[in-house]
Design goal:
The protein is α/β, with parallel strands linked by helices. Helices cover 43% and strands 18% of the residues. A 7-stranded mixed beta sheet has the order 3-2-1-4-5-10-11, sandwiched between helices. Helix 1 packs parallel to helix 9, helix 2 crosses helix 3 and helix 5 packs across helix 6.
């Protein structure tokens, strides 16, 4: 294999640039030509592609976001869009593609592989909701951002004897809420994977009030939503001034942490080596701190359970 491409798709995540760098540098060291595809599968269909080299990726390891930009493409899911992307690959001589993104991106990589363009998926998403891997690029940076923001919220909550209900990202998964809630000592953590009721929240707050606690931080997963209404109901039921905070896309940005840079480098290097071995239709993953790979079909069929033992511990020690 002499010519490959790299693209980022779906939501951006800190560490994507570090991964792009690893792909380009590894391929360059192996004497391969590397194309960068702008704006994900849209760019692949539209031939928005440029040749990258060792210097193209200089000084990007510490940058958040993705220098290749990202987009979600409905057209790519159609037969017409897929064939258009394949024709661009043939025109450019692209023999394999590294796709950095989430499950939706991997489905696109699977379909391209079936069309004769070998693809390797790398998990890049802050949500950590890709079932085949213990860790996704961007998670650690995002968690540290959430912790930093919630620590600031706690300062003002404490100053006013207030309850603050904080919504964090994660789509329909509660990993970010659970981990960040544990890290900040949240009074209550609300995630899709664990049933809850308003009565449970009020009961816990009333109990801790008896123990002389006067301020509260409640962390809520994005998939639950409704934080403004929840804050209003809490204030009505307890008489405690309650505010809601939606952290939003600040969670996606920022310079990647050391862990995200390291994992990105290892996964990017691994992906290029898989292509050199003539392998496609694979997803790179981290299992028990080792970099491994799975068939895309196997990866997409896996399930992933949240660690509810961590939830129980968080609730036990956040009285």
């Amino acid at each position: 294999m002499k010519t490959i491409a790299v693209l980022t798709s779906g939501g951006d995540a800190p560490g994507m640039n570090a991964c792009i760098r690893a792909v380009v540098r590894t391929a360059g060291a192996r004497g391969m030509k590397v194309y960068g595809v702008n704006r994900g599968y849209n760019g692949l269909m539209e031939d928005d592609i440029y040749e990258m080299n060792l210097r193209t990726v200089s000084d990007i390891i510490d940058r958040g976001g993705t220098i290749l930009y990202s987009a979600r493409s409905l057209k790519f899911k159609t037969e017409e869009g897929m064939n258009q992307a394949v024709e661009v690959c043939k025109k450019r001589g692209i023999e394999g593609i590294v796709v950095i993104g989430g499950d939706g991106s991997f489905r696109g990589a699977r379909d391209l592989s079936l069309k004769g363009i070998p693809c390797i998926g790398i998990p890049g998403t802050i949500d950590n909701d890709i079932c085949c891997t213990d860790y996704t690029i961007g998670l650690d940076t995002c968690l540290n951002t959430i912790v930093s923001m919630v620590d600031r919220v706690r300062d003002t909550s404490e100053s006013h004897d207030r309850c603050t209900v904080v919504e964090v990202m994660g789509r329909k998964a509660g990993y970010l809420a659970l981990e960040s809630g544990l890290a900040v000592g949240a009074s209550y953590i609300i995630i899709p994977e664990k049933p809850y009721s308003l009565e449970d929240v009020i009961k816990r707050m009333n109990y801790t009030l008896k123990l002389d606690k006067r301020h509260f931080v409640i962390v809520v997963a994005e998939g639950i939503g409704g934080v403004a209404n929840l804050a209003k109901r809490i204030e009505e039921e307890t008489g405690i001034e309650s505010k809601s905070v939606v952290l939003g896309h600040v969670q996606r940005g920022g310079s990647p942490s050391a862990k995200d840079r390291i994992v990105a480098a290892l996964m990017g290097n691994y992906a290029v080596n898989l292509l050199l071995e003539g392998k496609g239709n694979r997803v790179v993953a981290m299992k028990k701190d080792e970099i491994v790979d799975y068939d895309i079909y196997e990866a997409l069929s896996m399930t992933k359970d949240i660690n509810l033992n961590e939830y129980d511990i968080a609730m036990e020690i956040s009285i």
